[in-house]
From TrEMBL:
Keyword Iron-sulfur on entry: no
The entry's keywords: DNA damage, DNA recombination, DNA repair, DNA-binding
Chain segments carrying region Disordered: 258-299
One Pfam family in the UniProt entry: Ku
Domain Ku: 56-185
InterPro entries referenced in this protein's UniProt entry, alphabetically: DNA_bd_Ku70/Ku80 (IPR006164), Prok_Ku (IPR009187), SPOC-like_C_dom_sf (IPR016194)
Family as reported in the entry's similarity comment: Belongs to the prokaryotic Ku family.
A GO molecular function held by the record: double-stranded DNA binding
UniProt protein name: Non-homologous end joining protein Ku
Summary of the function given for this chain in its UniProt record: With LigD forms a non-homologous end joining (NHEJ) DNA repair enzyme, which repairs dsDNA breaks with reduced fidelity. Binds linear dsDNA with 5'- and 3'- overhangs but not closed circular dsDNA nor ssDNA. Recruits and stimulates the ligase activity of LigD.
Organism: Ensifer canadensis
Any one Gene Ontology BP term: DNA recombination
């Protein structure tokens, strides 16, 4: 197996303790199905070109430059050298600014996760930081220049190492007020709430990422296979949303189905227990036969 390639190498510093570390990509989309854009008429691949919005002429890469629009049609041009000079220099150090309780973390700010591991030397200091954070049940807020941008990073204990998640800035996270502003103030109680709680209780489980399948990728793969084989896939009907008047009925049906599933699981479990006990009972009977025969001989 090829060793993973580090995306970034530097140092992590807490107090006056410093140790070399490396960041490795924790989530990747490289295994997803990839497509090319084709010309429908010829079947040939198309290539992307930038054209002048006014003249329609193709603009070569060396003639392309960044511009900030001040007003309609008026731009401030930013040369690559100017932008490079404006970016803060990286000292390759993740400076821990604060430790915070894990309970205070709002996951809406999470951007991209990276595995954070010690780089060759400095394992003792790394393990010290990891175990100290684990003992105190805290995460760390650090700041550094990553990929030419100053980024805030949240560092948490993850298995034998640490995981560093880049965080969205506050201005990048949209307010929830507008998303929920049309939601009326309703209070659900009585049988409907009891049934909802019952359904939730019967479907309680634990988080297992391996049990989640990418249905979109599977569906696209099946579509590609069907196209190659010259067959079509059956069309699925869209599910109908429950109407307000049918909500109680849907809850009752859901609760009844959940109860049947729970009963079936218990029955299966009891059958398995009974099957496990039978061999033991037979062996006990088999052992008792010689003892009975000995008693008869003695009499």
């Amino acid at each position: 197996m090829v060793a993973p390639r580090a995306n970034w190498k530097g140092y992590i510093k807490f107090g006056e303790v410093t140790c070399p570390v490396a960041l490795y990509t924790a989530a990747s989309t490289s295994d997803r199905i990839a497509f090319n854009t084709l010309n429908r008429k010829t079947g040939n691949r198309v290539k992307r070109e930038f054209v002048d919005g006014e003249t329609g002429d193709t603009v070569e890469r060396d003639d392309q430059v960044k511009g900030y629009e001040m007003e309609n049609g008026q731009y401030v041009v930013l040369e690559p050298e100017e932008m490079a000079e404006a970016v803060p220099e990286s000292d390759k150090t993740l400076k821990i600014e604060a430790f915070i309780p894990c309970s205070q973390i709002d996951t809406i700010y999470f951007d991209k996760p990276y595995y954070l591991a010690p780089d060759k030397l400095g394992t003792d200091a790394f393990v010290l930081l990891r175990d100290g954070m684990k003992q105190e049940k805290v995460a760390a807020i650090a700041r550094t220049v990553l990929f030419r941008r100053v980024r805030t990073v949240l560092i948490r204990v993850h298995g034998k190492g640490l995981i560093a998640s880049t965080l969205n800035f506050d201005y990048e996270v949209r307010s929830a007020d507008k998303a929920f502003e049309d939601l009326p103030d309703l209070k659900i109680e009585g049988e409907m709430l009891d049934l909802a709680e019952h359904i939730i209780e019967t479907k309680m489980g634990s988080f297992d990422a391996s049990s989640f399948d990418d249905r979109y990728e599977a569906a696209v793969a099946e579509l590609v296979k069907a196209k190659i084989e010259g067959r079509s896939l059956p069309k699925r009907k869209a599910p109908a949303a429950s109407k307000p008047g049918d909500l109680l009925l849907a809850l009752r049906e859901s609760a009844g189905m959940a109860a049947k599933k729970t009963k079936a699981k218990r029955t299966a479990a009891n059958v398995n227990k009974g099957a496990a006990r039978k061999p033991a009972a037979k062996s006990a009977t088999a052992k008792s036969k010689p003892a009975t025969a000995q008693k008869r001989r003695a009499s």
